[in-house]
């Protein structure tokens, strides 16, 4: 719209871009990821045999019977059923994914096209004397939320590309795209996502050698600190104008209170609260 297009044409252009990106992903990247995930699942039992040759693993297995439990979990089919729900579960998962995609696209079109009307209806609930101020603050909160989503996407892309390069270098190239995709998704979860990524990559590194696993662990622990305290706060500071310390604390608090959903919503909520505090409470205090 800033380029001079009407809202209807602008929504059409955005929708075309989203559909084009989804089409490219489904036709080019998704089959590779699916193939690599299937390869990981098929190779998992054999990896257990290889891991057993390590003396340290044998010692732990003798004490806690770890290998046999994992082997039973995989070979009995529980792993595949719990992850995919069997053959019927796969079909239902695909159907659910398609349905959810259609719902998201429909809602996206609706909100993009009707957002001004929705905002005007919501702002009319405020008293007339304060309606302009409420409208201004509401618009700023909406912009901050959109900026947060864009910032989170940048963090996810950075993590995915970083993982793709690292796995190709370290010897996990057969699963590089699948791991990059998973790590990118997990990076959408502040702080917590990097920990889960480190566990996954380290476990797969152990299938090559304990040395590779140790390298993966050290690398991702270092990357976790870099992402949590440098990359994520700096991007969010520019995107939503929230200090880095508030970003980290809010993400940790949200994750502790509401789990993954809380961690995802923590930063935009913190941005909204911080903005309202600055613009309403602090101004009232200064006026006294």
Short description, anyone?
This protein has 288 residues and is mainly α. It has 10 helices and no strands.
Annotation keywords:
single chain; 288 residues; mainly alpha; 2 domains; 87% helix; 0% strand
What does this structure look like?
- By secondary structure, the chain is mainly alpha-helical.
- It has 2 domains: 1-125, no CATH class; 133-288, no CATH class.
- The chain contains 10 helices and no strands.
- Helix 6 packs antiparallel against helix 7 (176-186) and helix 6 (131-170) packs antiparallel against helix 9 (210-240).
- The radius of gyration is 24 Å and the shape is globular.
- Residues 77-87 have low confidence and may be disordered.
What general form does the structure show? globular
Radius of gyration: 24 Å
Through-space gap between termini: 41 Å
* Strand residue percentage: under 5%
The low-confidence parts are 77-87
What is the H/E order?
HHHHHHHHHH
Chain-wise SSE layout:
Layout: H1 7-51, H2 55-64, H3 66-75, H4 78-84, H5 86-123, H6 131-170, H7 176-186, H8 192-205, H9 210-240, H10 244-287
Helix pairs in contact: 1-5, 1-7, 4-5, 6-7, 6-9, 6-10, 7-8, 8-9, 9-10
């Amino acid at each position: 719209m800033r380029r001079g297009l009407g809202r209807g044409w602008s929504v059409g252009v955005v929708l075309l871009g989203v559909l084009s990106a989804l089409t490219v992903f489904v036709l080019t990247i998704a089959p590779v990821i699916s193939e690599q995930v299937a390869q990981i699942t098929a190779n998992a039992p054999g990896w257990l045999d290889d891991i057993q040759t390590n003396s340290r693993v044998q010692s732990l297995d003798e004490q806690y019977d770890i290998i046999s439990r994992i082997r039973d979990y995989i070979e009995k089919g529980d792993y595949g059923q719990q992850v995919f729900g069997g053959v019927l579960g796969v079909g239902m998962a695909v159907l659910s994914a398609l349905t959810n995609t259609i719902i998201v696209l429909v809602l996206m079109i609706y909100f993009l096209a009707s957002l001004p009307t929705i905002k005007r209806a919501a702002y009319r609930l405020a008293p007339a004397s304060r309606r302009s101020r409420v409208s201004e603050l509401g618009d700023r909160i909406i912009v901050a939320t959109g900026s947060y989503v864009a910032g989170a996407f940048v963090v996810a892309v950075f993590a995915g590309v970083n993982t793709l390069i690292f796995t190709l270098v370290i010897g996990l190239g057969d699963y590089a795209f699948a791991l990059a995709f998973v790590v990118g998704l997990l990076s959408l979860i502040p702080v917590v996502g990097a920990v889960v990524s480190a566990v996954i990559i380290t476990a797969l590194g152990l299938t090559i050698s304990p040395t590779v696993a140790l390298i993966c662990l050290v690398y991702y622990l270092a990357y976790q600190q870099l992402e949590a305290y440098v990359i994520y706060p700096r991007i969010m500071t520019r995107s939503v104008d929230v200090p880095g310390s508030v970003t980290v604390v809010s993400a940790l608090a949200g994750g502790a209170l509401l789990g993954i959903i809380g961690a995802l919503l923590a930063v935009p909520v913190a941005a909204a609260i911080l903005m309202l505090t600055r613009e309403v409470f602090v101004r009232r205090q200064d006026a006294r």
